[in-house]
Amino acid sequence: MKYWLMKSEPTVFSFDDLKGRPGSTDSWEGVRNYQARNYMRDEMKAGDLVLFYHSNCEVPGVAGIAEVVRTAYPDHTSWNPVSMYYDPKSTPQNPRWFMVDVRWKEAFNRYVTLTDMRSRPELMKMKVLQKGQRLSVQPVSEEEFDTVCRMGRGLEGG
DNA sequence: GCCAACGTTGGC
DNA sequence: GCCAACGTTGGC
Hints:
Layout: E1 3-8, H1 15-20, E2 25-27, H2 34-43, E3 49-54, E4 61-74, E5 98-113, H3 114-118, E6 137-140, H4 142-152
Parallel strand pairs: 1-3
Antiparallel strand pairs: 1-6, 2-5, 3-4, 4-5
The chain binds a DNA duplex through residues 7, 9, 33-34, 55-57, 60, 114, 131-134, 136.
């Protein structure tokens, strides 16, 4: 099993929005970066766990855990001219972009802010904390995942 | 709103 | 294939 961090702007699609979807499940559409796409398309599997990260907001941080429930399939918004994610180079015959389905799993007792994570030496190598990185889909080590979960569940101070 | 850090585009 | 210009991300 692998662990991931996925970013979403809460004003566009929040962790609570995911919970409110039918079956608390939705497709992760709109990824338009090749490295992020490759992670989703080539490495994500059903059962993988995801830190749901709120980006570009007043207090960025991890709201809770989601689970991958469907492996990658073509992102149909990419060939929809009306979609904000439209890419004329992607077609149903030759899709360029992919998405997975994720299901809401667990809300943290405490929202784990970016500042909280920066205070943890064991998270020093976590990608989301590295300067200049902006991948919206990132692999997370098991230790990093467990640490963030403990922080979010309030089992540790800080 | 600012702006550093990236990624993409396109002329050459 | 280089690289300047441009667009986007996302913390602050």
